[in-house]
Amino acid sequence: DWSKNGRTQSEMKLGRVEFCHFLQIIALFLCLSGMNQAELSRSRSKPYFQSGRPRTKRSWVWNQFFVLEEYMGTDPLYVGKLHSDVDKGDGSIKYILSGEGASSIFIIDENTGDIHATKRLDREEQAYYTLRAQALDRLTNKPVEPESEFVIKIQDINDNEPKFLDGPYTAGVPEMSPVGTSVVQVTATDADDPTYGNSARVVYSILQGQPYFSVEPKTGVIKTALPNMDREAKDQYLLVIQAKDMVGQNGGLSGTTSVTVTLTDVNDNPPRFPRRSYQYNVPESLPVASVVARIKAADADVGSNAEMEYKIVDGDGLGVFKITVDKDTQEGIIAIQKELDFEAKTSYTLRIEAANLHVDTRFLSLGPFSDMTTVKIIVEDVDEPPVFTSRLYSMVVSEAAKVGTIIGTVAAHDPDASNSPVRYSIDRNTDLERYFNIDANSGVITTAKSLDRETNAVHNITVLAMESQNPAQIGRGYVAITILDINDNAPEFAMEYETTVCENAQPGQVIQKISAIDKDDPPNGHQFYFSLTAEAANNHNFTLQDNKDNTATVLTRRNGFRRQEQSVFYLPIFIVDSGSPSLSSTNTLTIRVCDCDADGVAQTCNAEAYVLPAGLSTGALIAILACVLTLLVLVLLIVTMRRRKKEPLIFDEERDIRENIVRYDDEGGGEEDTEAFDMAALRNLNIIRDTKTRRDVTPEIQFLSRPTFKSIPDNVIFREFIWERLKEADVDPCAPPYDSLQTYAFEGNGSVAESLSSLDSISSNSDQNYDYLSDWGPRFKRLADMYGTGPESLYS
């Protein structure tokens, strides 16, 4: 193979054919090199005419330039030469080059016009370049010839190997296909020039995969080469396909790809059972629909070709067992269709067939696509619970039956060969009230309590039968006991009637239709008879008519009913049923006298309405009462508010004593004053402070007031007084919402000094005499000086 990056002379070992091609290429190269010497012949002669068409001799004479791709030399590759007739060789003309790749790929000698390629060219990247050439006067830099365009084409060499753009490939072909069956087509592409030489002419060959497959050299179609390829023997093949250019000749480049061929399945294998017979043991207690066994016929095929069906074609268990197919595993599932009984039959034999669902007629010669096997099922004996002779027993008993009355009998037996004795009992979860008993040995059911059909008409109980030898084996029987009815309930009103009669009712007017009910359920239905009791039969107000259809009608006997005379009537009605013996009851019908409108609709039935003045309705009366009650409530609220709103005992209305500041110049008595502050008041609840801070004194008046204490035998009076004032302050809506100190001017009872109040004592017209204060001793000297009339007083 020729490498894309160049070849050394040691690698150029050519055969005869290759040598001929090489000489042709050299000759073509020399010819093109000669043609590339484009000579510019500048003609100064006049145009001449030929065949009637004007023709001028051109100054530029050249053809296309050609250059080989992938040149790997160190020197620039010579492309061609430009020359103009104007150029005399004296250096007055210079050549310039422009267009694609000018200066970057192609350069020109401005003196000689030689063109060189400075970079390696690749035809697969760009096949040709379009450039423009111009000859300029070196001194004036003006063109001496018009600009002309030319093309440099890249000459292709075989430097690209074929490539499989879609590889690697995967394909499938049915197994057992005949020789020549098409599998898949592969395609390789070559980037070389398909119009020049054989560089892009590809042929295909198979390098791996013989002798099973082959490939068409020109088309790349892969076909089967061997018949009867079996998927079950080998299902996958890996092929290696080669594509080589130069028509597959030596020196051509090649590429390869892989093709994975999978043999798809066909139904060429019939199902076969691994064994000719099977045997399974099954306990007789296995319930219906239980799976007994699973069998499977082997089939080497897959998918739908391996799908099969199973059926029982013969044997003595056709009605006892059934077989179905598991769609996922293609197994035959044998299940019980009827209950097994070891005592009746101990074994069963089944002939089972397995067959393919989808048979390919091309392979019928391989044999029948079905198979047979034998399945033997052995029934095992187990200890079974007792079995009742009937699944459901129906019994009847009268509700009048006495305790101990026999209702019926149940029977059960042990189905096993041992035939163990059976004992009976009632499942008390089904007879919570214990209405019934059963004899443990005989199975006789009797009543244990009085029965009431109206409470429970049918009793459903479960009877248990257990083996004496194995109490764990318990059978269950079901008994439905229906209670027969007797006439033990008297008839009564069907509902609570609200009967009214209008004051303007006429004699014979129907005021009520009544009916009756009875809790009993006689076989022929109810028949009730209605009448008035003996004491009511001769009343002058109402009468009763029996309608003979289990209803009765109440009618008036007179007119002129008045509520103020009698507002309610009580009518006793006697009802008798048709039972044997018959039962009766007396029911009282309450009839109210009402005021009715013209249509006979009751408006009011209260006798008190007659005391109202004429023209006032009930609604008006209610409105008047509501107004009166509202006024009473308002009056009570006003009175309560006024009682709670009281003035202070000693304060003036116009003064706000809360904002007064009172200062007392009370100086202590010194160490000798041992009575100024009596600490006993803090320890003795019976000693209370007699004198409070005087808030009734004008702030400008300054005096000293020493508090005094007195002892009383009991402080109950003060507690009650303070508690009353506290409650008044809490409920008083006019009291301030802030915390305040409540001062109470209550001095108690039995004060020796009596009242020391100084209200109005500072007025000029006061006739109060305080001279006696000076007789009380030195403690009252200050007060005597302030309020006395002597010359030593402070105020006059």
Descriptive notes:
The chain has 796 residues and is mainly beta. Among the domains are: 64-155, Cadherins (Immunoglobulin-like); 163-264, Sandwich (Immunoglobulin-like), CATH 2.60.40; 277-380, Cadherins (Immunoglobulin-like, Sandwich); 387-484, Immunoglobulin-like, CATH 2.60.40; 492-604, Cadherins (Immunoglobulin-like, Sandwich). It contains five helices and 45 strands. The strands form 13 sheets. Strands 4-1-6-9-8 form a five-stranded mixed beta sheet. The chain is flat. Mean pLDDT is 78; it is low at 1-21, 30-61, 609-614, 649-657, 681-713, 759-764 and 791-796.
What's the quick description here?
With 796 residues, the protein is mainly β. It contains five helices and 45 strands.
Protein structure class: mainly beta
CATH architecture of the domain at 492-604: Sandwich
Q: What coarse outline follows from CA principal-axis ratios? A: flat
Helix percentage: under 10%
CATH homologous superfamily label of the domain at 492-604? Cadherins
CATH class of the domain at 492-604: Mainly Beta
Report the span from N to C terminus: 153 Å
Rg over C-alpha atoms, rounded to the nearest angstrom: 69 Å
List segments where confidence is low: pLDDT < 50 over at least 5 consecutive residues.
1-21, 30-61, 609-614, 649-657, 681-713, 759-764, 791-796
CATH topology grouping of the domain at 492-604: Immunoglobulin-like
Q: Beta-strand level of the residues, as a percent range?
A: 25-35%
Overall mean pLDDT: 78
Within the largest sheet, what's the order of strands? 4-1-6-9-8
The tally of strands reads: 45
Major sheet attributes: 5 strands, mixed
Number of helices: 5
InterPro entries: Cadherin, Cadherin-like_dom, Cadherin-like_sf, Cadherin_CS, Cadherin_Y-type_LIR, Catenin-bd_sf
Organism: Crocodylus porosus
Membrane topology: Single-pass type I membrane protein
Subcellular location: Cell membrane
